[in-house]
Specification:
Layout (H helix, E strand, L loop, with lengths): L1 E9 L15 E12 L4 E12 L7 E16 L3 E16 L14 E17 L6 E16 L2 E21 L4 E14 L2 E16 L4 E14 L2 E16 L4 E12 L14 E12 L2
Antiparallel strand pairs: 1-2, 2-3, 3-4, 4-5, 5-6, 6-7, 7-8, 8-9, 9-10, 10-11, 11-12, 12-13, 13-14
């Protein structure tokens, strides 16, 4: 196990000719630790830090920042990799009132706080001993909000849940790779409810002793805002990469985008149909 302690102090008004926009008037306290357990099959690491400014207390604005992070990764048997991480960012600012010198006027300081939390869980499961087939699942959570004088501001908060599941199959001998999956997210931004679902499929194939590679990818996204469709888009991509020599190659890529017309309730903006096709051709040479 290793443990690190760090302290940084920069005086108010300090400047440096060697670095432009150098921060000053602050103190940083940081603690970090990491450890490996169970014959390196379990790894833990984390850090916590606090930053203070307005060290002399003579400014109208002062802030305190707190950052914390923890990460754990584990190997379970020979087929499962597990990773878990969590981070928290908190910024608290105090805005001091200026006395205008007018009697019978009460002044009070304002306290503003911003909180951002993130958590991610990732699981990889290998379907065979060669590890060329796998299932990958990821769940992430994000929550952010602004607080003024201990009250959460109703229009300045967001919460998101994101789930991504993917299957991958790689055949090195045949030069074939297949990836398919689906991503979904659900969340709130202020008083708006957002939902998105996006399945994907990608195939890559190497031919002519791996000098020629063909690849294609298709995805479809359907999104809702307060249960009304606001995103209905299909995307297709196709690419060709031909290796002429070790230092020369030709590349072709094309992209097709289609937004479908969607009927919405009266009083909401209708999604008009839209279609676009683009392509590029390139020649690469290295020296």
């Amino acid at each position: 196990m290793s443990l690190n302690l760090n302290f940084e102090h920069i005086d108010p008004g300090y400047s440096s000719l060697g670095t432009l926009f150098f921060n000053n008037d602050l103190q940083n306290y940081t603690i970090s630790a990491k450890s490996s357990l169970l014959k390196n099959r379990l790894n833990l690491n984390g850090n916590v830090g606090i930053q203070l400014n307005n060290l002399t207390g003579n400014k109208l604005h002062s802030s305190t920042r707190f950052v914390g992070m923890i990460n754990a990764s584990a190997l379970i048997g020979t087929k499962i990799n597990l990773n878990l991480s969590y981070s928290n960012f908190n910024n608290t600012s105090i805005l001091r009132a200026v006395d205008p010198g007018i009697p019978d006027i009460e002044l009070s300081d304002r306290t503003l706080a911003q909180v951002n939390q993130n958590a991610t869980l990732n699981l990889v499961y290998f379907l065979n001993q060669d590890r060329n087939q796998s299932l990958n699942g990821t769940y992430s959570f994000q929550h952010a909000m602004s607080i003024e004088n201990e009250q959460v501001l109703p229009d300045q908060f967001s919460t998101f849940h994101v789930v991504n599941i993917q299957y991958s199959n790689t055949n090195t001998k045949k030069g074939l790779q297949i990836q398919t999956g689906v991503m979904g997210n659900f969340g709130y931004v202020g008083h708006n409810e957002l939902i998105n679902i996006a399945p994907t499929l990608g195939i890559s194939l190497a031919l002519l002793e791996k000098k020629l590679r063909l690849s294609t990818r298709f995805s479809y996204t359907l999104g809702y805002n307060n249960q009304i469709i606001n995103n209905n888009v299909a995307l297709g991509q196709f690419g060709i990469n031909y290796q002429i020599t070790k230092k020369q190659s030709m590349v072709f890529s094309s992209r097709w985008t289609k937004r479908f017309k969607t009927s919405v309730p009266e009083g909401h903006s209708e999604l008009n149909s839209f279609s676009e096709l683009s392509g590029s051709l390139g020649y690469n040479v290295s020296f």
